[in-house]
Design goal:
By secondary structure, the chain is α+β, with helices and mostly antiparallel strands. The chain has 3 helices and 5 strands; from the N terminus they run H-E-E-E-H-E-E-H. The radius of gyration is 14 Å and the shape is globular.
Length: 129
């Protein structure tokens, strides 16, 4: 069965899109640790990061870097942190999280957002790409 992220890639489920290439997609995490929390995924559906072929792995890192630099310009924070977990969704995704404190990196404190908040931050990040 297709992962929820493959359904997003195929347009079957909506997302707040940040960036897209032939091989990768970035969109806002729907349950963010902090404003601007973004997921970068390969379109190729693979469960675990280190099972990616090397070209896709390196491409995902380069794509994530481009997106992270845009987040850092658009969202007030001390830095953008990068985490890979994957215990919930078995489709490789890099979490890019604007950090102002260690709590933002802990996936415990969640930040509530309205659709308007998501739209606004997605637009601000896209403007920095
Ligand atoms: P993990 O697999 O533990 O790295 O976590 C999966 C992440 O995907 C969580 O932070 C979820 O909030 C996020 N997530 C799950 N479904 C969606 C969705 N439809 N759109 C955006 N983010 C999602």
């Amino acid at each position: 069965m297709a992962s929820i992220f493959t359904k997003i890639i195929n347009g079957e489920i909506p997302c707040y899109k940040i960036a897209e290439t032939d091989d990768f997609l970035a969109f806002l995490d729907i349950n963010p640790n902090a404003k601007g929390h973004t997921l970068c995924i390969p379109k190729k559906e693979v469960d675990k990061l280190f099972d990616l072929d090397e070209v896709t792995y390196m491409g995902l890192m380069a794509f994530s870097r481009t997106v992270a630099l845009a987040i850092e310009k658009a969202v007030p924070c001390k830095r953008v942190g990068m985490t890979v977990i994957g215990l919930e969704v078995p489709h490789v995704h890099v979490h890019l999280i604007p950090l102002t404190s260690m709590d933002d990196a802990r996936f415990i404190t969640k930040s509530a957002h309205t659709p308007e908040d998501f739209e606004a931050v997605a637009k601000a990040i896209r403007a920095q790409l």
